[in-house]
From TrEMBL:
Belongs to the NAD(P)-dependent epimerase/dehydratase family. InterPro entries: Epimerase_deHydtase, NAD(P)-bd_dom_sf, NAD(P)_epim/dehydratase. This is L-threonine 3-dehydrogenase. It comes from Neobacillus pocheonensis. Gene3D superfamilies: NAD(P)-binding Rossmann-like Domain (3.40.50.720). Residues 4-227 form the NAD-dependent epimerase/dehydratase domain.
Length: 314
């Protein structure tokens, strides 16, 4: 049985991952932490502690209090916010990661942190981007993610910390909204489709990016963390993806299921430039071969579920 500390537990991934892990490993065995509390289930359904990830003592003290054997470090700024506040992003994303790795080292704990398609850059092959390839990102977020992958590998080789990671595409969910990402349009579009019947996209037509529905992302985290280490040739971090689409394709799928839906464009140059520097589609063969990664949701199935869930929620 695992005993897991999660940082960033109230964020887009954390709020759902906390609930899934509590169902899987028991509520008392999943310690949710974040910089502040809110009234979500992640706070009320099990142990919750305030943790500032830039304060290593704070993190280690909480980890020791609960005797955790796994650290899942999710607290980070996403790509667009990091681009607007690069120094803050470096300090939070890299400082927080270093502190979380140190916490894992001190407690001899297993470690997970997400990387991203943002770790790739304009000189990376754009289609079917391989697992091992050129990684020269041009965004602060991407620089943080590549450095984070290398640092996580370093902690594995140097200190024997069982570090594992996933290069996530844009994650789509009806539970918690993302904030400050480039792929956020693919979440917002569903909310506005249901509430207003129309959406103005800040990403231009013809811009392909990988995406994944949250249930697949949560399963991927659990499966990777349960995977037999002997089978892992890679660790930090595995390409994973479920679909790749451009704004006009998600709009067409929504219109099929919600007749009358309309989309217009008002391109944001900053987020468009970030999107243009990322792959069109990535290749997840290594994840499939080394630990059996699979995704259940394609664009049509995800759209059906998103629209159904949001009709009840909004
Ligand atoms: C972002 O857009 O910044 C994130 C990501 C792909 O890492 N969703």
């Amino acid at each position: 049985m695992k005993r897991i500390l999660i940082t960033g537990a109230l964020g887009q991934i954390g709020s759902e991952l906390t609930m899934k892990l509590r169902e899987t490993y028991g509520s008392d065995n999943v310690i949710a932490t974040d910089i502040k509390m809110n009234d979500s289930d992640a706070c009320s359904s099990g142990p919750f502690e305030i943790v500032n990830v830039t304060d290593v003592k704070n993190m280690v003290d909480v980890a020791k209090k609960y005797k955790v054997d796994t650290v899942m470090h999710l607290a980070a700024l996403l790509s667009a916010t990091a681009e607007a506040k690069p120094v803050f992003a470096w300090n939070l994303n890299m400082g927080g990661l270093m502190n979380a790795l140190e916490t894992a080292r001190e407690l001899n704990a297993q470690f997970f942190t997400p990387s991203s398609i943002g770790a790739f850059g304009p000189s990376t092959p754009k289609d079917d981007t391989p697992q091992d390839t050129i990684m020269r990102p041009t965004t602060m977020y991407g620089v943080n993610k590549v450095a984070g992958e290398l640092l996580s590998d370093y902690y594995f080789h140097k200190f024997g910390v069982d570090t594992r990671g996933l290069r996530f595409p844009g994650l789509i969910s009806y539970v918690a909204l993302p904030g400050g990402g480039t792929t956020d349009y693919a979440v917002e579009i569903y909310y506005e489709a249901v509430s207003k019947g129309k959406y103005t996209s800040y990403i231009d037509k013809g811009t392909y990016m990988d995406m994944m529905y949250m249930p697949d992302a949560l399963n991927a985290i659990v499966d990777l963390m349960e995977a037999d280490p002997v089978k892992l040739r890679h660790r930090n971090a595995f390409n994973v993806t479920a679909m790749s689409f451009a704004p006009e394709e998600i709009a067409a799928e929504i219109a099929k299921q919600l007749p009358g839906f309309e989309m217009t464009y008002e391109v944001d140059p900053v987020r468009q430039q970030i999107a243009d520097s990322w792959p069109n589609s990535i290749d997840a063969t290594a994840a499939k071969e080394e630990w059996g990664f699979k995704a259940e949701y394609d664009l049509a199935k995800m759209t059906k579920d998103m629209l159904e869930k949001l009709r009840h929620k909004l």
